[in-house]
Amino acid sequence: MEGFTLFDTLVLITYISLIAWIGSRFGKDQHNPEDYFLGGRKIPGWAIGLSVMATQASAITFIGAPGWGFEGGLERLVTFINVPLAMIVLILVLVPIFHRAGIYSIYELLERRFGPATRTLSALLFLIARGLATGVVLYAPALVLAVVTGWSVNLTIIIMAVLAISYTVMGGISAVIWTDVIQMFVLWLGALLSIFLLVTSLPGGWGDVMAFGAGSGMFNAIDLSFDPSVTYSLWAGLLGGFFLHVAYFGTDQSQIQRVLSSPSVVDAQRSLLIGGYLLIPQMLLFLFIGIILATYYQQHGLTPPDDLNELLPRYVVSAFPSGMAGLVIAGVFAAAMSSLDSALNSLSAVTVRDFYSRYIKPNASDAHYLKASRLATVFWGLYATLFAFFAGNLGPVIEAVNQIGSWFYGALLGTFLLAIFSHRSNARGAIAGLVVGMLSVWTVSSQLDISWLYNNTVGVTVSVTVGYFVSLTAPAPSRDQLSDVMMEEAAPDMQAVLAARADNAQVIGKEARVTRRRCIGLFAWFCIMLGMLALLQGWANG
């Protein structure tokens, strides 16, 4: 079969229409900003977890990861190997404090601890970083449309932008999460269908894939080199990847906002378990698509496209049966929508909560802020559209998104760590650490030949160090500034809430044991995943 057929188009249109209809159903239940941005704080943890997974399996992953696998096999999996450990930090430290504070935007917490200037600067950095990354996310599915339809990329960007903006404006966070649950399964179905059809097209099936992968070094996921210029060494993944994911999942409003929509800390922690267990296998799935495609191209003597982001969609529309190609491309759209809706909603939340309601229109009605939130969503959709026009010059799309975030998030994580763990840190130190931390990342990444994965490590280290010592030049903060932010204050508050909820103090110990078991399970999963990669590499090289 050649090309994208009418039946494929009908499958795709049916899916897009279904998601748009589902999203619109939630708009009528929104009466205030809390409904729009946090779903009334009553969304169950399992749904939030699947929503986060859908965002991680974005069109960036669906398109970019097969290109990674085609080019380098499993080597880049070390970027994600530390996700279970990052989730442990979030479960034990950041999420209890964020959720207990009852905030819309996590940058509100920095104002309570360090004052309005720190909050404003941090929120502004988020808007810049996430706004740029959203443009890349918009470019990825537009590229797919251009490949399968023959339209120009710019035209497809505009089409996708109109659809995404309309859907997000109508739905709010409830629509974001519940449509993501549906889209998660569509995305997995598309990925598994791709693997099945690819493998069955090979004469020797999985045997061909394993033989090619072993013979070409595709299964060499663990590079023990201590050379910091080696981008995907194990050490870059363990150290740099750890801070990358703690910073991303812990200081990016687009991730934390969904966690804040849960009814309790326990539900919020439960949502993180899903990502902790499934993100590595999910990335492995998409990398294997790339390895299978490399096997196919090698067997048929084919030349890959210049842009490896086009690798999977080009194969899908040229080789898949009619209808199945439409389903796989629908999976790409599922991935794209799950990323765009959450990004635009969080950008709107920070714009309205951290800027508009404080500096432009304070003390307005809920109806006014709800209208402003929807207008802010439109603004950020247009902003992302303009940036998407230039995203094609950024190279592989996953790396582009991660590198954009690495310029900012490490220093921002350092600021939150100062707020949570250091009694002595103050506003002067926090701002100095944040600014110097970012400058250090830009300096190191531009002047030294080291892996970009270390950017967040540099940002965190410099931000905390500079922030603490500069804080010593100004008076220590008052007790009131510490009371609802510091880590040591979290346990008593959480215990009181749990005891009141259950009317039985024994629940405190039970919840503590559950949390401990969850963290032990995540650590064991990290060890299992690392061990499996080592065994696969040993088999391939044996």
Note down, in words, how this protein is organized:
The chain has 542 residues and is mainly alpha-helical. Helix content is 77%, strand content 0%. It has one domain (6-541): Up-down Bundle (Sodium/glucose cotransporter). The protein has helices at 6-25, 33-38, 45-56, 59-72, 83-100, 107-114, 116-149, 153-200, 206-215, 234-251, 253-260, 265-300, 311-319, 324-360, 366-388, 397-406, 409-421, 427-447, 455-471, 479-482, 490-502, 506-541. Helix 3 (45-56) packs parallel to helix 12 (265-300), helix 5 (83-100) packs antiparallel against helix 22 and helix 9 crosses helix 22. It is globular and about 70 Å long. One of its GO terms (cellular component) is plasma membrane.
Structure characteristics:
globular; mainly alpha; Sodium/glucose cotransporter; 542 residues; single chain
The overall pLDDT, averaged over residues, is 84
Low-confidence stretches: 490-505
Oligomer: single chain
CATH class categorisation: Mainly Alpha
β-strand amount? under 5%
CATH fold group: Sodium/glucose cotransporter
Number of domains: 1
Shape field: globular
Distance between the termini: 40 Å
Number of helices: 22
Largest sheet: none
**Estimated radius of gyration:** 23 Å
Task: Label the structural class.
Answer: mainly alpha
Share of helix among residues? over 70%
Q: What is the β-strand count?
A: 0
> Based on the structure given, which CATH architecture is correct?
Up-down Bundle
CATH superfamily: Sodium/glucose cotransporter
Order of helices and strands: HHHHHHHHHHHHHHHHHHHHHH
